[in-house]
Give the backbone structure.
Amino acid sequence: MAASTPRKTATRKASTTPRRTKPKPPADLGIVLDDDAARAETEALVADREPLFTIGGKTYTIPKLVPPSWSLKAYEIAVTAGEPAALAFAAQKLLEPEAWDALVGCETLSRSGMTTVLQALMDKLLPNGAFVPKA
């Protein structure tokens, strides 16, 4: 028996014209939470402020409403690291640095004044009285 030669198969040449396929529909991203509209809304929340305390004739303010992400973070910190850590986060997010410095440097700050200010900070972030500092 003689060895057979392999049969030649036709090779397909690559087409130079692009294939026509349907465009893919855009991926469903669910709710987009970090778009320009959300950024503008968050900035507006933080910019709309109300007075919290006055020291030396200067009134210091905090946002009237806070971004929900701040509340979630404060809750997470309170659960994982405790109330003092959540309070530190609240002070950092809500007070401008000069307001904190004024509060810390106020020699006439009473216990009730301090409790009122700190409770107001926590109430902004965790409105239903959760993790309010003890007097």
Notes: The mean pLDDT is 86.
